[in-house]
Amino acid sequence: MDTTPTYPTGYGQSKRRAQRAAFGIFRTLSLIIVFTLFAILGFIIYKGAGVISWEFLAEAPTDGMTDGGIFPAIVGTLLLMLGSAIVAFPIGIMSGVYMNEYASKSGWVVKFIRLMTNNLSGIPSIVFGLFGMALFVKYLGFGDSILAGSLTLGLLSLPLVIRTTEEALKDIPDSIREGSLALGATKLQTIWKVVLPMGMPRIMTGLILSLGRVSGETAPILFTCAAYFFPQLPTSIFDQCMALPYHLYVISTSGTDIEAQQPIAYGTALVLIAIVLVINLLAGWFRRYFEKRVKTKQ
Amino acid sequence: MKKVLERVVKWLLTASGFVTSLVILLIIAFLFAEGAGLFRERVIEEGYVLALHPDNPVREMTAAEIKAVFDEDITSWTALGGPDVPIETFRLEDADKYFTEEQLGAQYENAGALISELIGSRPGMIGFIPESMAVDGAELNFIEDNSISPAEVFAGTEWFPTATPAPLFGMLPLLAGTLWVSFFAILFALPFGISIAVYMAEVASPRVRGFLKPVIELLNGIPSVVYGFFGLIVIVPILQQVFGLPVGESGLAGSIVLAIMALPTIVSVAEDAMRNCPTTLREASLALGATQWQTIYRVVIPSSMSGIASGVVLGIGRAVGETMAVLMVTGNAAVIPTSILEPLRTIPATIAAELGEAPAGGAHYQSLFLLGVILFFITFIINLTVEYISARNRAKNR
Questions:
Q1: DSSP labels for B281-312?
Q2: Hey, which residues does A117 pair with through a beta bridge?
Q3: Domains of chain A by start residue, with CATH
Q4: What's the CATH fold of domain B172-397?
Q5: Mean pLDDT by 10 residues, chain B (398 residues)
Q6: Residue A103 is nearest to which of B17, B19, B191, comparing CB atoms?
Q7: What is the interface pTM, i.e. ipTM, of the complex?
Q8: Into which CATH architecture does domain B48-146 fall?
Q9: By the CB < 8 Å criterion, does B382 face chain A?
Q10: In chain B, what residues touch A222 (CB-CB under 8 Å)?
Q11: CB contact under 8 A, A95 and B16
């Protein structure tokens, strides 16, 4: 008996043609986006590369910000990254450990915390800026300071740290925990000696990526920390500081002499992009390096 | 000893688990505390009154009417339910048009009496003067100074937070601007986002995917201020030339930049959803003789629809809340947009641009916190929607 289904003539051909067209469109659109990324990166690297010099990186701005370098802004951004790490990493990792190791997986507590964490990660950065200004700058009286900026940025990056910690620990099989417990280790010892070291590579990757995010944030530090011009280096955590993203914003929108400042803007943008690139490469390298050494999945 | 340590650590970990919830509560508390203060503020600038001729029956004016009067858009009292006399406005700066310096006195000590007398003698005059100056001229009527009403704020169409005598805090243009750019941003990002997600999840070889994934991650990692800078230097001039605009900073420039920025969110969430679509479904479809493309749009896309929707909604959230890039390229004109080619202004951009200049504790400052509250709620609702979609999806897949 003939079991071949009957199709209208040309059906097979037309459906193959439809597939070719659809995939062609997908490929084209993907290419456009790849091109967009390279256009942005290429443009900034091309325009900024000529500006970068040792003087540009290691000197303070001079002549009303129309000349000189961006050293204080680089230092400021590094300080803010460090400060936010001090705020977010311990709390975030502890919170992630609690979620995965202590709280009951299906209980309302976990659901509630996860809901709140997801919500926090969706709150716009400018709202963090408002909040940081109201709480840290005004209410607690820190003033515009590195402390207030770091706290604000730390809270902003908290959800990312919590989520990556949780994800990292979730993939560690229970049999490993049970093995440790069976050997007589307490729960805390198990977490400290077994679970955390195994989860570390992926936690670290998350931490590095959160630093990358912090380095580029402008809105949260607008009103909590960033100074337009603060050429000397900050001496205490109650000082204001310059920061790369804010510097780029100010110089490209409200500079005193847009023409003379254009090169500085390109240079600043390039340094910012470089930080992001380095951090992304570092995170990727970290992930690959440690995944070879520690097998967290079976 | 060991037991105590275990318990302390457990307690500490539990406490840090609730930090995010605490932060959200604090954000709500602080934003509300400042934002709600706006409705306790008076319409007319503090310490000032609007004085009228004693025979003028007008007692109530909205902030918008006050502004129109002082901008000379309203020129007769009939428009405000008063007598048929033309309106004359008087501000303190106008004092030397009516009086000489000797008359006013070196310290302006005679100004109060003179101005009160002047307003009392001109039936059509409305004077915006300090409270202290009006006291001695008892023969005047005053416009009632009500507190700022929610209707004027939430339904007001004019945003002039620094106007005198009465600032206008109509938030509609800002809300409309925000939704307008976000809408177009998603419109641009959607075809790209879905196509790339499908391509990465279903079509591309592992090598191509291994190349595309970092590209998308990098797009996500570029700081918003760099996007803004790129938009300002490259996209804005191009748009100005192509469309022959007077200024290139426009809603369209904002939408394009936002589309690029929202794209990674849409792609990664939608791609995840499609990769989680069970292989058995796909194989069943292919076994029935469907092509790969038919399988994708008849089986894979419908079955991962909720994940795709989550991605799109999250992308909208990202677009709505984005500050710096939008601030730099949209031109920041606080008018209700009628075309995407006009400059417009979004809520986050307004906060970022104006908070630095608004005196702390004043009505303007509080109105910016109120904008923060609105923004918070928009994103809160968006996040809850995403949670709802994915919760429903989990329940369905169980």
A1: HHHHHHHTT--HHHHIIIIIHHHTHHHHHHHH
A2: none
A3: 76-293 (1.10.3720.10)
A4: MetI-like fold (1.10.3720)
A5: 84 90 93 89 81 80 82 80 81 78 75 78 82 67 81 86 84 91 94 93 90 90 92 91 86 93 93 89 90 90 89 92 91 82 90 87 90 93 89 73
A6: B17
A7: 0.89
A8: 3-Layer(aba) Sandwich (3.40)
A9: yes
A10: 352, 355-356
A11: yes
